Amino acid sequence: MDFIFHEKQEENMDDSGFFSIQVICNALKFWGLEVIHFNNPEYQKLGIDPINERSFICNYKQHWFTIRKFGKHWFNLNSLLSYFATLSYVIIL
């Protein structure tokens, strides 16, 4: 049983602590949220304007971070930064 658990855990997390997209999706399902990949045809069909969204989960070089809209301003909430970086609409789009 330990082997099966360990094998399953390796599929979802590596030694650096990086979690797979499946872990992110399952965590968000708990809150009734769904992950739709930005380049997915399903997302394109919905006709969603990214400017009207409130947040995005991003991955860069196997590091997850969030960009979030507070009021009219977007912030990079990357835990590797020592500050919350303000983003412009040009960067987001």
TrEMBL record:
Chief site of localization: nucleus
EC number: 3.4.19.12
Chain ranges of the Josephin domain: 1-93
Reaction catalysed by this enzyme: Thiol-dependent hydrolysis of ester, thioester, amide, peptide and isopeptide bonds formed by the C-terminal Gly of ubiquitin (a 76-residue protein attached to proteins as an intracellular targeting signal)
Gene Ontology terms, MF aspect: cysteine-type deubiquitinase activity
Cell location: Nucleus
TM segment ranges: 74-92
Database matches in Pfam families: Josephin
Record bears the keyword Hydrolase: yes
GO BP annotations, alphabetical order: protein deubiquitination; proteolysis
Top EC class, one word: hydrolase
Domain of life of the organism encoding this protein: Eukaryota
Keywords: Hydrolase, Membrane, Nucleus, Protease, Thiol protease, Transcription, Transcription regulation, Transmembrane, Transmembrane helix, Ubl conjugation pathway
The keyword Protease is annotated on this UniProt entry: yes
GO CC annotation terms, alphabetical: nucleus
Xref: InterPro entries: Ataxin-3, Josephin
Annotated PANTHER family: ATAXIN-3-RELATED
Protein name in the entry: ubiquitinyl hydrolase 1
Organism taxonomic ancestry: Eukaryota, Metazoa, Chordata, Craniata, Vertebrata
